[in-house]
Amino acid sequence: MNDNIEIEFPLLQDVVYLDHAAATLYARRQLDSYMQDISNHIYGNPHSRSQSSQLTSEVVENVRERILNHFGTSSEYHSVIFTANSTGAIKLVAETFQWNRLINENRRYENDGLNSNKGILYYLEDSHTSVVGMREYALKHGADFNCISERAVLNSIENLPQVSEHDETELPNCLFAYPAQSNFSGRKFPLNWANNLKRNEISCFVGRCGRWCVLLDAASYVMTSKLDLSLCNADFVPMSFYKMFGFPTGIGALIISNESASFLRKTFFGGGTVQAYSSTEHFHVPKVNIHEWFEDGTLPFLDIIALRHGFDTLQGLAGGMHQISHHTFALAKYVHHELASYCHSNSKPVAKLYHENNFEDINIQGAIVNFNIIKDNGDYVGYSEVDKLANLYSIQLRTGCFCNTGACQKFLGLTSDKVKKNFEAGHKCGDDKDLIDGQPTGSVRISFGYMSSWKDAKRFLQFIRECFMSTNPEPCETRLRQYAEPVETRTNLFLYKMFLYPVKSCGAMEVKEWNIGSRGFLFDREWMIVNENGVALTQKRTTNLCCIKPNINLKENTLILNAKGKTPMTVPLECDVPSSSQSLCQSRVCMHRVQGIDCGQEVSDWLTDVLGQRCRLIKKNNQYKRLTKLNGEAVEVSFANESQFLLLNKASLDHLLECIQQRDHIIGVKKDDIDCQMDLNNLIGRFRANFVFASQEAFQEDNWKEVYINDLKFNVVGPCTRCQMVCVDQETGARGKEPLQILSKLRGKRMSFGVYLHLASQELNGKLSTSDSVRVVHNEIDESS
């Protein structure tokens, strides 16, 4: 397999992809085979009766059999119901399961409290959000729920009591849901739990229900492991195919035991699901086949056809699930053991690993490694910082709680009260608020796929050593303190430089004086470049944006775009709101919707030529206001990310530059060639500030509360948290590892550098100039020029 990686996965030559538990990658031959298939055949809607439709129906049914065969069963015992994904399959079970139907339906069921014969949903603590969400349907239908630990299940199997006989016809249906493999830690849970439960061999479940059904969440497990349903008596098995072979997305399946279909009661019927119905009377007859009754509307038949080529790839390219499982487990075991052995120079561990085994048994552990990084002083490194630094090394991983709050609570020791308090403190699923009161709110997860290599594992470990391991005799904080003194002592405070950035993520325009507007500097980030899908381009992915140098000509009332070797492009500063909505463009900045006006085809062609991809220039629609909020203060902004202005302190820049030059002494890693070329002006350009002040002391700006330039007042509204974009050389577009890597050592968890400003003055005071007087107010003192 390794010999074919460069051919089948050419994009992996410079990228270490370690997020296979979220979505694995697709091979080139898989796409080529699929494209050849749909290019050579006409596939029609399977609800029709034409030859192309009949061909589709036959292929879709063959794919169903292929899926069942892959999982060790056949249509005699199981059926495949196609869904949008694993979550869709779980939801289908939740909304149709007969929670409180007595086996003896002649008896009346009375909902009279927890200890009555209610139906109940048991789910394992270590479960995906979608499984936990089933409880809302259970409660809606009068059933109960219970979150149960793995230890409780194991103890009840080992210590079976004598259970009195009971009449199953007196008891309702109940459901136990658990994952075949934790998507948090990779822990594989016993597949025979389903069999044990059916034989009444799990005592904590006995006596509550007449008939138990089992939902086995296989989404994480089938990614790298072989699931044989002939040995596992689960009733419902949801999965997503993109976790197995990357393409197509948007399609999953519920594999259902044919004997268990009677436990689902579907009410809605859609196209293709009934044999006959009347539109004027309450009459309809469902189709006989299980999948035909549950698959409403036209199937995504082209995606289903693509599944065949995915299974071919797993077998032909990857060598089958047995080889995939052993290969990925070996990589995870190697990384786990190495991480567990890493220590700082003071012998304290580098990582805290979240696993309940030692990666010695492939039957109880999958190809997932979960951890948090710990500093040599015992403090946690936030997962957001790890993620940002990983991007410098072209390593793709995942951070957070991975839609598995139960496992996050278990491994991180988070009580329900703590989860609620974290939410009140501003932490939400999917954000980067990684530490609260010094404690992690989530973790870092890496996961391997069949195309992962030993080179990937070694590059990841190199990243950990270089960024987080203290190897010198003295602790990192002590070493940095050697360089904590400012390069030069200042007795006054003045405005050193001013910049605006007319086109978002393009080059800077340095000015000596400039007008202030209601959203910041006049014409600052008033334009933005979007791709053909309307997505904003930034230097995070398109580094050569910095090579476009905008300039504002106020006399000619034009924006001039310059690029080396290209004829300058001129665009009018003002453009009227078009009468046709086709000239309006919707996009997003920091997940907030923005609206712009398209600047025309001529500039679009120029940008496409410069950047090497189809794109367009849009100008902010001034009739559409965009507000941002920092520290409770809401103000209007243009296309800037979070604030109207960004302020840097030259003393902080000088200090940071010296630390970069001393990098080999601080973190024991030599600088890249691009980092060696960095000087003060280069460093200033990377941080893309509007104001650069010269003050007496490095990082003095952290304590500034208000800033005055002449009589114009600005409020300091918070620090600017940095990302990998500061590692882009603004003259060449080349990306290195500095200054972000040394900034993580110097500034800690948030990697902040510079502070955001909002204009506080109600009346605008014309132009600002670098010769203007400057005054700042600290939280405690007032410092003037």
Architecture overview:
With 785 residues, the protein is an alpha+beta fold. It folds into 4 domains: 189 residues, Type I PLP-dependent aspartate aminotransferase-like (Major domain) (Aspartate Aminotransferase, domain 2); 151 residues, Aspartate Aminotransferase, domain 1; 159 residues, no CATH class; 127 residues, no CATH class. It is built from 23 helices and 39 strands. The strands form 11 sheets. A 9-stranded mixed beta sheet has the order 20-19-33-32-36-35-34-38-39. Strands 11, 12, 13, 15 and 18 form a 5-stranded antiparallel beta sheet that branches. Helix 4 packs parallel to helix 6. The longest helix is centred in the middle third of the chain and has 21 residues.
In short:
Helix content is 27%, strand content 24%. A 9-stranded mixed β-sheet has the order 20-19-33-32-36-35-34-38-39. Strands 11, 12, 13, 15 and 18 form a 5-stranded antiparallel β-sheet that branches.
The CATH superfamily of the largest domain appears as Type I PLP-dependent aspartate aminotransferase-like (Major domain)
The count of strands amounts to 39
Could you tell me the strand content as a percent range?
15-25%
End-to-end separation in angstroms reads 66 Å
CATH architect. name of the largest domain? 3-Layer(aba) Sandwich
Task: Please indicate the count of domains.
Answer: 4
How many DSSP helices?
23
Q: Indicate the overall shape.
A: globular
What's the alpha carbon Rg, rounded to whole Å?
A: 30 Å
Q: How would you characterize the largest beta sheet?
A: 9 strands, mixed
CATH class of the largest domain: Alpha Beta
